[in-house]
Specification:
about 180 residues, 2 domains, two-stranded antiparallel ribbon, about 25% helix
Length: about 180
């Protein structure tokens, strides 16, 4: 029985959940599908999702990581959920909660997805990582630790990179004349 598979958005063709980036039949985008009935029968997700701990503990039944030794993690996840009674009252709802994603190891809401992506890439034999980002995703793969052995090169877009203004780029050294 298959645990997860890809379904092409364009042609609807199904493919195994292996290293694919586009549909081999039509180059369409691929969506990951799970056998949700099998997940419910096994009960693994229900048993762990409310626990404290990293995403690797809480969501292991949904992550397609086969080799735990390849996991690159700084214990992402388990960020606090904070109740805002004042805003709940203002909006007329019983409860309103906010997730404090800045409590992730690098302070980014992208820490989880970078950990999952880099871990799966390592499992597939990849050893170099990079990202093109103008913000949060660029910071997530950078810290070298025993579980995250090397920083990834980061390339920011020109639009996101501050350019020195004409007045700042000129020399401010005093003139001899």
């Amino acid at each position: 029985m298959r645990r997860a598979w890809f379904v092409c958005e364009g042609c609807g063709e199904e493919h195994p959940a292996v290293e694919l980036y586009r549909c081999p039949a039509c180059s369409g985008e691929l969506n990951l599908r799970y056998d949700s009935a099998a997940l419910r029968r096994r009960g693994a997700f229900a048993a762990h999702w409310k626990e404290n701990g990293s995403l690797w503990r809480r969501f292991a039944s949904l992550l397609l990581q086969e080799d735990e030794a390849q996991i690159m993690s700084l214990e992402e996840g388990s960020t606090p959920l904070v109740c805002s009674d004042k805003l709940a009252a203002r909006f007329g709802v019983n409860a309103l909660h906010f997730k404090l994603e800045s409590c992730n190891p690098i302070g980014s809401f992208k820490d989880r997805q970078v950990s999952v992506g880099m871990s799966k890439a390592r499992e597939l034999g990849h050893t170099r990582f990079g990202t093109a980002s103008s913000g949060n995703v660029a910071a997530s793969p950078c810290p070298p630790t025993p579980r995250v052995p090397a920083p990834a090169p980061t390339c920011g877009s020109r639009a996101a990179s501050p350019r020195p203004s004409a007045s700042r780029s000129r020399s401010t050294a005093p003139s001899d004349s």
